[in-house]
Amino acid sequence: MDVETNTGGPPKYVMLSENGGDGGVRPPPYRRNIPRYHSTAQPYKKKGNCCLKCICCFYCFLFIVIFGLSAVAFYIYAIYQPKMPTYKVDHIGIGAFDLQADFSLMTEFDVTVRAENPNERISIFYGPLSSIAITYSDSTLCTGKIPTFQQGHQNVTFMDIVLKGKSEFGSGLQEALMDNRKTGKIPLLIKVRAPVIIELGSLPLKQITFLLNCSLVIDSLTPRKKVEILSTKYDAGIEW
């Protein structure tokens, strides 16, 4: 008969006595069952992924729009090669320059403006809402309008403009003007505002406004006498 011997490990069987004794072995301590709560809210991760996708889509759309506009602008520039038109005061004449006793001034100027369109495929339409004014020491002497016309490709046009006006001219301005007339150097400022429509081939674009300020010095204000332009300075701009 074989007898099992203990080799030093824990016993395979534990005998409990009928009297409630445990033979030196105690039951494990009582363990509390901790309640578990399950959240019903959606994980934050899904919301974050949705927002991230929307942001990525927006930036992709914005990139496509910017790229498309840049491509169109590059195509137009490469094909049409737009250049700014140039303007020059070619001639100025005095039709009337009369100082009145009530310190008012009656003036009439004849101005010839040279307009050059250097573009090969772009024409310029000059609209009816243009204006041109001549000022002296911030006082407007006379006003007029640029004629309405269509300027073709690579074209030079001379515009003859008549400006008339009646303005208040105080004694201080009269004295300054008389001093300038004696020295033979009268500073004037010509302001041009010309709304135009640019046409690429046969396609009209949005109306823009050419702005031109011409500071010039002339030698005389005597009516019906040849006037010499001593110096000129031009400042041009565009109003979108």
From TrEMBL:
Keywords: Membrane, Transmembrane, Transmembrane helix. It is found in: Membrane. InterPro entries: NDR1-like. Coiled coil: none annotated. Its main location: membrane. GO terms for cellular component: plasma membrane. It comes from the Eukaryota. The chain crosses the membrane at residues 55-80. GO terms for biological process: defense response to other organism. This is Late embryogenesis abundant protein LEA-2 subgroup domain-containing protein.
